[in-house]
Design a protein that fits this description.
This protein has about 400 residues and is of the alpha/beta class. It is built from 16 helices and eleven strands.
Length: about 400
């Protein structure tokens, strides 16, 4: 049996002789680069770069985007096959309006199964808003969009008390947070005071106005978007709020064939505001999600896999490239997403490969790079990949 990770020893990333194939969407492991001497002036990989990192080589797209490949579903057999098939058909339904973002749909479904929230990041024009609108229509869930601006107030999100002249009393007027899918568009463009208004809603699934807690509907998921460019005039989310998001999905630019398909649809008169004309119809609902969550809770997790998750998270806390590692909340999030991924693939138990597949989108926004590592061009994805390559995998 493999010895568990010893936290007393300083974490030293080492490249294994042979890295196992990762079959769940992140592609084959990178080949080990030849050992290079330390370059103290920023012209090569320095002491904060993970072993095998070469700044001259572009990173793999799958590693940087952190999106998930759609799992191959088993034949319809056994309990839960019907609801699993319904959720799997979401990819086909969303593709009627959104082209080339199948993997992001899988990530959103995992968040719904875990009752978690999602941070979507992508350059303008990659259909982030359209993706959420189409998902809400395919799931027959209520969806509301809030454009986060510098003048947005907390009461504009959670709701406020309004004086009624007819009754001479104050009545509560619900804000857009009272919905199933809340799209917080460009969340980093509103001040921290308004950003913090979502903390209670995201964690406790309720809002408190005038000392009275008011529960939110079920399911309730916040899907926030932000652009990785044009940071002038923005308010970056603090680490405490980033930790509230279950997943961070980076939407890549579409492939050439997919982009041609987008242009073809628009040349045929496609209107993204009219999803019904695009043929999008509900294929699942809130009851199906509730049943799926119950089945996900039945997925078994062995003690070796639990130890593997803890070892990965503890290794990030001693990595020389990171100033902030993964918290225990991140470990529980990785456990939840791994169970949902295992259920989507038709298994009743979690494997280490499930943990590896969900490690990047679940942990990438929970760690913080040191300034020295950023100067060397190291990314959080490369650091996490180095951790996954070093922590012993249970057999």
């Amino acid at each position: 049996m493999t010895q568990p990770y010893q936290p007393q020893q300083p974490y030293q990333p080492q490249q294994p002789e042979q890295q196992p194939q990762q079959p769940y969407g992140y592609g084959p492991p990178q080949q080990q680069q030849p050992q290079q001497s330390e370059q103290p002036y920023g012209y090569g990989p320095g002491p904060y770069a993970p072993q095998g990192y070469d700044p001259q080589q572009p990173e793999q797209q799958g590693s940087e985007t952190g999106v998930l490949a759609q799992p191959e579903l088993p034949p319809e057999q056994g309990p839960g096959s019907e609801v699993r098939t319904k959720l799997a058909s979401l990819r086909t339904e969303v593709a009627k309006a959104v082209v080339g973002q199948d993997a992001a749909v899988t990530g959103l479904v995992i968040a719904l199964l875990c009752r978690g929230h999602v941070l979507l990041e992508g350059v303008p024009g990659v259909a982030k808003t359209l993706l959420v609108r189409t998902l809400g229509a395919a799931l027959d869930l209520e969806m509301k969009r809030v454009q986060f601006t510098p003048d947005l107030m907390p009461g504009d999100v959670t709701g406020s008390l309004v004086y009624d002249a007819r009754t001479s009393e104050f009545s509560f007027r619900e804000g857009p947070v009272f919905t199933n899918l809340m799209l917080a568009d460009e969340i980093n463009r509103t001040p921290p005071k308004t950003q913090a208004s979502l903390l209670e809603a995201m964690e406790e699934r309720q809002v408190s106005v005038d000392g009275t807690p008011r529960p939110l509907p079920d399911p309730f998921v916040v899907i926030a978007t932000q652009n990785p460019v044009e940071y002038e005039g923005t308010y970056p989310l603090p680490e405490a709020q980033l930790d509230r998001f279950l997943l961070k999905l980076v939407l890549p630019l579409p492939e050439r064939t997919d982009e041609i398909g987008v242009l073809q649809r628009h040349s045929d008169g496609f209107d993204p505001r009219n999803l019904q004309a695009a043929g999008v119809s509900p294929v699942a609902g809130a009851d199906d999600l509730a049943q799926a969550r119950e089945e996900v809770r039945q997925v078994q997790v062995g003690p070796e896999v639990l130890g593997y998750i803890v070892d990965i998270c503890r290794a990030t806390r001693t990595s020389p490239s990171l100033s902030l590692g993964v918290s225990p909340r991140g470990a529980t999030a990785l456990l939840a997403t791994s169970r949902a991924w295992a259920w989507l693939t038709g298994r009743t138990f979690v494997t280490p490969d499930d943990v590896k597949s969900l490690a990047l989108p679940t942990l990438r926004h929970r760690v913080q790079l040191r300034a020295e590592a950023e100067l060397e061009g190291v990314s959080t994805s490369s650091v996490l990949e180095g951790v996954l390559a070093t922590v012993p995998v249970p057999r």
